[in-house]
Amino acid sequence: MSDNEFFHTLPCVENLRDAVEDRFGQKVVHLELFKFSSCSVVYKINLKGANGKTNPIVARSTPQNPYWGTSLSKPQLESEIYSADLLRKNNIPTPKVLLDGQILNIRGIGKDAYLPFFFMEFVEGEAGDRILLETKDPVKINRLLKKIALIFAKIHNVKGEEFGLISSIGKTIDGNSNFQDYFAKLIKTKHAFLQKNNITASFDEIELKCNSALVLAQKEGYQFNPTLGLYDLGGGNMLIDDENINVLDLSTCGWYEPIMDFCGFYFSLGSFMDRKLDKDITADDLFKKYYTEFGGSLPDERIFDSLIKVFLYNELISFAIYSANHRSKLKNDKYPNILKNALEIWSVDNKSMFKFLDAI
Q1: What is the CA radius of gyration of the chain?
Q2: Does residue 66 register a pLDDT over 70?
Q3: What is the DSSP code (8-state) at residue 26?
Q4: Kindly report the CA angle at 313 between 307 and 315, in degrees rounded to 5?
Q5: How far apart are CA 122 and CA 132, in angstroms?
Q6: Which of 51, 93, 97, 318 is the most exposed place for a label (fewest CB within 10 A)?
């Protein structure tokens, strides 16, 4: 058992070093756990080649504190590897997988403990949400939002057949071609978890609200079609360096309703999306404008506002369950507040939604 704040098990560093040197044929000169790792065990490893040049790579293992819907097995990594290849084939920037996607089992700290790892190229950069929140120049913000909107549109241009997580061989896990049925099952499963943990709320009423919003959107002509999505596409999972953007963390990659990807982005930036960049045009206005210009499809504002509230509720209860299950006390302590806000989202006016997200 590891004494790490976030992880139950970490690899024996000597075993990881030996395995890397054996497969890459280069000497490991530095190996460290990424300081922002809190879900999956991720290491930065510096290799020294025959020419004396240092080559950084990344070793990534399965989630030990999984976001809702992920597993803790080797097939989980195979799904991420498949997803990374799929993104790169569609010109969506994400780190290249090394060793042809080979997975190595590394002995961990603890009796009979092993951790599977795959390896990726190392890319420089800073978390996208941090850069956007700290940037004051509206011209630079405009440029970054345009680049991010292009990535969203490229991702959502990859069409699927059913809604659900991507499996290790590219199929859909428990796929469903009917979005209303898929989403109803998703919400009911999460509500069942909350009820098992003695959370009492008007879940039947909430499920009715969710379904009513989906039915209204369809009556107004909006079609729910499965497209590639990351589910957790927040600013923290985009690495920006000199305005080059790489998408990270594909553990929840699957086939979703495109608007669901907006939730992680909104959640990571909050009231920044209300920031006025040009007269009465907000960051959100610009983002959606660029998204549609690049081929993304959105319903009219009234339907979008109705759907985003439903999908934000789903995002928040997912994050609440993630916090409740997390090894870290710091994450556990956030659970009651996140859940409280999730249940209160239905009473929030859409004009106050981004400010509401700041408080979570």
Answers
A1: 21
A2: no
A3: S
A4: 105
A5: 22
A6: 51
